[in-house]
Amino acid sequence: MQASGRTSNIEEAEKLSIKALGFLVSEENRLQRFISLTGLDPATLREAATDPRFLASVLEYMMQDEALLLEFAEIEALDPTEVPAAHAALSPSNPL
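RE: above sequence
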């Protein structure tokens, strides 16, 4: 049985958001800013990364800082518009 387009979109969005999280934690200043704004600590990041709502919030965080978003897109060789599309796929208000 093949995955539906919706499931595939969610899986791709989760992969992108995990890459975004990896980008944030790969540099100390980015990590500290993210942690200070989210209230998480390094120990809880790994657990939070399994929650699609948290993954959506990582992408939302990226979208709020254009320079950060563009740097991430360049490093990952992706179109910056993929981030808001992935966010929409993971958004709790997105119907099943």
